[in-house]
UniProtKB/TrEMBL annotation:
This is Mitochondrial inner membrane protease ATP23. InterPro entries: Peptidase_M76_ATP23. One of its GO terms (molecular function) is metal ion binding. It comes from Mucor saturninus. The keyword Magnesium does not apply. It is found in: Mitochondrion inner membrane. Keywords: Hydrolase, Membrane, Metal-binding, Metalloprotease, Mitochondrion, Mitochondrion inner membrane, Protease.
């Protein structure tokens, strides 16, 4: 016998991603709260808006999305997104980065700042709906280390994520 395996979902086209994004922008309470928070701090932070586009072949091709502070926009990598939930989770993650880029905070180093932002973005974004507390912590921890090590190296990333974890994971601004 041969076990049936459902094929993985195909990635979204730019058009399908944009249509889902429109729906999420109109209906997601989390996205609305983040956008309002960003607007309150600085109306310019998302001057170029939120767009879906393919990232393969660019220097962002390992990502599902990113906030571009220089160009003031969020990009969703449609060729790495396969469901409405992935789009919404990624959008919440990147909007958290946009929001954090406008906040003032004191950190020991740039790596501490990056680690804290990644912990928050993962806790509020793609890891938020995991119910099991242990698995949820694993999700946040792993994703934060992976994103921080790009800038700070693995050893330093593990160390600073550990140092800031408790404080940052409980910081749910602008939700609470
Ligand atoms: Zn991130």
């Amino acid at each position: 016998m041969r076990l049936y395996e459902a094929p993985p979902l195909p990635p979204f086209s730019e058009e399908k991603c944009t249509n889902e994004l429109d729906r999420i922008l109109k209906s997601s309470p989390k996205v609305a709260i983040l956008l309002k928070g960003i607007q309150t701090l600085n109306k310019d932070a998302l001057r170029r808006g939120i767009t879906c586009r393919p990232c393969m072949g660019t220097n962002q091709e390992t990502r599902m999305g990113y906030y571009d502070a220089r160009y003031k926009r969020v990009v969703l990598c449609c060729d790495h997104l396969r469901s409405k939930k992935e789009i919404e989770d990624t959008l919440v993650h990147e909007l958290t980065h946009a929001f954090d880029s406008l906040r003032k905070g004191k950190f020991k180093s740039i790596c501490h700042l990056i680690a804290c932002g990644e912990i928050r973005a993962s806790a509020l974004g793609q890891c938020e709906t995991i119910e099991d507390p242990y698995k949820k912590k694993q999700c946040i921890w792993t994703d934060a280390v992976r994103s921080t090590e790009i800038h700070c190296g693995t050893e330093q990333a593990e160390k600073v994520v550990k140092e800031v974890f408790e404080n940052c994971v409980h910081d749910e601004t602008p939700f609470k």
